[in-house]
Amino acid sequence: METKEDYIKRLQTQLDQWKAEIDRLKAKAEQAEASLRSEYHQQIQALRARQDAARQKLDELRRASEGAWQELKAGMDKAWNEFHEALKSALSKLK
């Protein structure tokens, strides 16, 4: 069974990787044709909003007691999966 500390470390690592991917998307958007740039920036803005929400959930988890963190884990997993799917979708559209 994964400990709270290990779970938080794993999520933080994933969040850092996603940030790097979003930064790469932003760089691609800057290189895109003007007609597509606006769409790319909207996608990136939506991803950043989801990223911020995931970061807030992670902060909640950090503050949770040892007993309560397991209850929060299900919500975290759901938020993480939703963010991951949104990122994959954006990556496929912006390539």
List the helices and strands and how they pair.
Elements lengths: L3 H28 L2 H30 L5 H25 L2
Helix pairs in contact: 1-2, 1-3, 2-3
List keywords for this structure.
single chain, 95 residues, elongated, 3 helices, mainly alpha
Task: Tell me about this structure.
This protein has 95 residues and is mainly alpha-helical. It is elongated, with a radius of gyration of 15 Å. It has three helices and no strands. It has helices spanning 4-31, 34-63, 69-93. Helix content is 87%, strand content 0%.
Q: Could you give a short description of this structure?
A:
This protein is 87% helix and 0% strand. With 95 residues, the chain is mainly α. 7% of the residues are buried.
Helix share of residues? over 70%
- Beta fraction of the residues? under 5%
Nearest-angstrom radius of gyration? 15 Å
Query: How would you spell out the order of helices and strands?
Result: HHH
How many strands appear in the DSSP assignment?
Answer: 0
Could you give a short account of the major beta sheet?
Answer: none
Distance between the termini: 38 Å
Q: What is the 3D form? A: elongated
Mean of all residue-level pLDDT scores? 86
Our count of helices gives 3
What structural class do you assign from the helix and strand content?
A: mainly alpha
The low-confidence parts are none
